[in-house]
Amino acid sequence: MGGNDTTSNDRDEGDAEDSAPSADIGIDIDDLSLDDLDGGSSDSADPTSAADPSDSTQTTDTDESATADPAMSDTSQENGTPQEDDTPQGGLFDDLLSGDPIFENKDVLRPSYTPDQLPHRQDQINDMATILVGALRGETPSNILIYGKTGTGKTASAKFVSNELETTSQKYDVPCEVEYINCEVTDTQYRVLAQLANTFIEANERHIESRLASLRALKERADTGQTSLDDIEPDTNEDAEIDPDATSSDVVPSVGDRSDTASSTNSTDTTIDTDEADFDSIAAVEERIAELEADLDAFEPVPMTGWPTDRVYSTFFDAVDYHERVVVIMLDEIDKLVEKSGDDTLYNLSRMNSELDNSRVSIMGISNDLKFTEFLDPRVKSSLGEEEIVFPPYDATQLRDILAARADIAFEPDSLSEDVIPLCAAFAAQEHGDARRALDLLRTAGELAERGQTERVGEDHVRQAQEKIEIDRVVEVVRTLPTQSKVVLFAVILLERNGAQNINTGEVYNIYRRLCDEIDADVLTQRRVTDLISELDMLGIVNAVVVSKGRYGRTKEMNLSVPIDETEAVLTSDSRLGDIEDVQPFVQARFDS
Ligand SMILES: Nc1ncnc2c1ncn2[C@@H]1O[C@H](COP(=O)(O)OP(=O)(O)OP(=O)(O)O)[C@@H](O)[C@H]1O
């Protein structure tokens, strides 16, 4: 499922890496930073010298990689510059490429990969299929709400089922479409309806174009006197048939000509599918072509902004109802939509069926917030929750199975030591049984082993990966904090840096006020700052406990619960906090006050 990823920053990188030339050899060049190169191989990289081949101060590296670029080593020899171990030459990547690759296909460990098999989700998949099969019979399936914590396979399973549904609908020629919307990205009624309207307009345009193509072909044959309908593709759609009883002089084919087609369209003897719209003349075909062309011209895509919502809704409504079909609208992260813009969208979607003439709409909502339905209008709640499917967290054994299946495709044979999968599974099971986290761990452990140029991934790599992912998570959370929270956190860091422990709210507030003065920010009240500290506590950035100070009342005491260096680096990368030059004097405030 789309967003809500607190486990890794890499979540959406999959596509970008498809084109990486390294895919075959298992080295992910996009992922390499210069820090990664530091110490990761025999030479530590100096980007400036590596980037500038004309630099005459460059030295010759005696290891194999240096000889990869004869031009560069020649220059260095001429200069007679002494060898310096830490200055790389050409062949920057040769060392990295030299070892045996660990990954066979790293992409299968990425969130963007959709597996063919979803172990331990058969029950949920069967439940969904049992509900949605109605769509293939032309009935309206019940709406479904899917719940479960993050990484429990909700999106993967729902997408798997919808792919199957669409494939089967094509096989049996039953019009059924599934539209997927990630409500974390598309989070307002306007955007949801506009995206749906535009998708259906495009689908309608394709549908009309194909009708027009067959009608024009039919007309051309009739115009040129080719009367054999054998050439005309048997088509059960309304436009492909011509009335067998046609009498007009410009009737296209004769009855005798179309017996084959007739038999292929469920008709007995010479009658052709008279349930469908028929044409008794070329003029009728032309008229239908003109109608379709007019429909095509009338479609107006919804702009990204600017229309009244009513108009967007009616455009979507008309587009869906343009022809007969069952539509399943999959709203992933549906709670985000409700949180951001209330339940109007769901209300409108859930009452559509009573007004649609040709099509039927069914909603599949996916959420990892079990409580979001509490905020729904009771009518919406009961309509949306006609069927509910729960995705429980995976336990360590189930995660092992999932990882083992992926690892088979992702890694070269014998690249994983035997502890690796159980350890990844155990770490992820502790984190509420999150398969995404387990896969991230396995991939990161593999990358660390690869960068360390070891032949096998070991337990240590998994532990380092766990730490790295945790730091990535912290960095992401801290980076997206509002400025005021960042200032509060910065105050805590400054106090810790100066040896303070069990820091109390008053101390934080004093430093906070001075930092605000320094950066020209509004100073909030101490009560508000206490609230911000509670939020930092909830995010797991500080650990705050309330302690009683006897007759002085109660206060909060806190310590930082994230790595101080990385957190400080993220804070000072914020342009406002980065402007604070000398932090030392502020810390004195603790002792002055
Ligand atoms: N049973 C399974 N077998 C194989 N892979 C799985 C399974 N369950 C989940 N995954 C993988 O785990 C990752 C997360 O799964 P998915 O996005 O479906 O979770 P989710 O429940 O929708 O999470 P979120 O609520 O955070 O979006 C995906 O890469 C998915 O392929």
From TrEMBL:
InterPro entries: AAA+_ATPase (IPR003593), Cdc6_C (IPR015163), Cdc6_lid (IPR055237), ORC1/CDC6 (IPR050311), Orc1/Cdc6_arc (IPR014277), P-loop_NTPase (IPR027417), WH-like_DNA-bd_sf (IPR036388), WH_DNA-bd_sf (IPR036390). Signal peptide: none annotated. The keyword Isomerase does not apply. SMART domains: AAA, Cdc6_C. Residues 140-395 form the AAA+ ATPase domain. Gene3D superfamilies: 1.10.8.60, P-loop containing nucleotide triphosphate hydrolases, Winged helix-like DNA-binding domain superfamily/Winged helix DNA-binding domain. Residues 27-38, 230-244 have a biased composition (Acidic residues). Residues 1-120, 223-277 are annotated as: Disordered. Residues 489-571 form the Cdc6 C-terminal domain. Belongs to the CDC6/cdc18 family. This is ORC1-type DNA replication protein. It comes from Halococcus saccharolyticus DSM 5350.
